[in-house]
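seq/struct pair 1
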Amino acid sequence: MTVFALGDIQGCYRELRALLEQVHYDSNKDSLWLTGDIINRGPDNVETLQFLMDQSNVQVVLGNHDLHFLAVASGIREQLKGDTLSDLLEHKELDTFTDWLRKQPLVRYDPDYGTLLVHAGMPGIWDLETVMARSEEVFDQLTNNNYRRFLQEMYGNKPSIWHNDLTGFARLRLITNFFTRMRFYRHPGEIELNQKKTQAPQGFEPWFDYRNPSLHKITILFGHWAALGCVQRPYLAGLDTGCVWGRHLTALRVEDGRRFKQQALP
């Protein structure tokens, strides 16, 4: 089995299929790892979701666009300018799509490959055990019968500093923002969510510049930060290369670190 990790697809189905053909992906024996934001802003959300749901070996983490779709589908939020979710919202299988997405976590860890998969990032205050426990807190919310309340409360930039005594939806919101929206971080435990480019606000740094010591020998695969392009460091790979913005879609062959890219199609 070969494992291919892909950056943000965002409904770019034609590029997805072209990239998988380029790497000779075999759905019967290969595995796909996806860094989230698999839908929205691109043209073919239905085809993208249907294809991925049909794969026997796919590991997905949720991104902010995937969570936003769940909120829109639940009637909690309206589509934003630039959203392209109508094909999903008007589809007869809408409930199937939302049910499948709700069963995906915010973080996955594969001990065989020593690899963490996350959409945006993780704060340096948390070790591996804590990262997985925090992800599980949000997963429990998404998979219970009251999940709409969580979706309603997840929006917002506050609180921005982690304290272990945070409770309720304030705690869940910050956990979600760390894993699905974070770019810049200040130790210990502060997030900055206004700057989306590459220049760090004063006092902050890219989240991956401060890594928890327990994660130094664990590879973190992430997406979300298209402005950075392709990030390649020891034990770190950024895979969002802006396909939906006219750049390209990236796949990483996990076994040897080789990268493949597919240019955005007209």
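seq/struct pair 2
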Amino acid sequence: MKALVYTQPGEMQWLDREMPQAAPGEVVLEIEAVGICGSDMHAWHGHDPRRQPGLVLGHEFVGRVVESKASGVEHGTRWTGNPLIVCGTCEYCVQGRNNLCANRTMVGMTRPGAYAEYMSIPAASLIAMPAQMDATTAALTEPAATAWHAINLSMRVLTRPLHECRVLVIGGGAIGMLAGLLLKQLGVAALTMTELNALRRAAIARHIGCAVVDPRTAPLDEAAFDYVIDAVGAKATRQQAFAAVKPGGAIMHIGLQDWASEIDMRKLTLAEITLQGTYTYTTADLRATVAALARGVFGDLSWVEERRLADGAQAFVDLDQGRCASAKIVLKP
């Protein structure tokens, strides 16, 4: 089979790879579509020691079963999936918080991912989807579930209902875009987004219909937002989030562009700011997100760009150089 392989920082190659084999309890999927995630870009830059050259990346996928060694999973059926391979028995799994599984591994990190014509995965990770759902929509389940999980976590700590809040989303990448679309569906009228890329600012204005600014030229009001989502996770955006949030407000930290930086602990304490982190999604979130995508909760998704998997190397370069208006590129074999 052919696969798009991460060969060294800044380089992907379209190479021959051995066809995967299903172990007991696993299936082999023929990949129909797979998205490029920010974490894949992070690995491509050489910034993720967990993802080493020689690896097939890709964890936002949909595919059709071509081999099954799992009961109840039939040849030819279509599935999306949870890229987290969880144990099902640790304290977090039994609590329904399997995103925090103490023994988790991951597709596209500890085992070959979906930037390939075929991929193996445990059947327990498969997520059912409507038979009529198109492949690009299904491939958005994983990033959309990340936004879904984060916003649901935040609603537990907001002092007023979400639709009453003035909300800021920092970053118009895929997670920021999907979060913005979901926030609008949840009734948030006072929504502002920030984005450095002019092409993406135009896409946000067109598809979400909210205020969108370049923070380099239009500084945000300080202490003005009840709820802030940092969908970038850089030192500068963490500082922006703390400056923008109101006393008593909440910050949801999703992005991990930088792994460490100082935060304003004085404001966190004296202004009773709630700072939350979030990691991916639970299986329940993934199932709820599939249903939401099927209902059109995230809009028509016309902002998503499709390309051939064989052209994926150029897609990474274009994303890196800011030449894409779309916050999400979905690759198809």
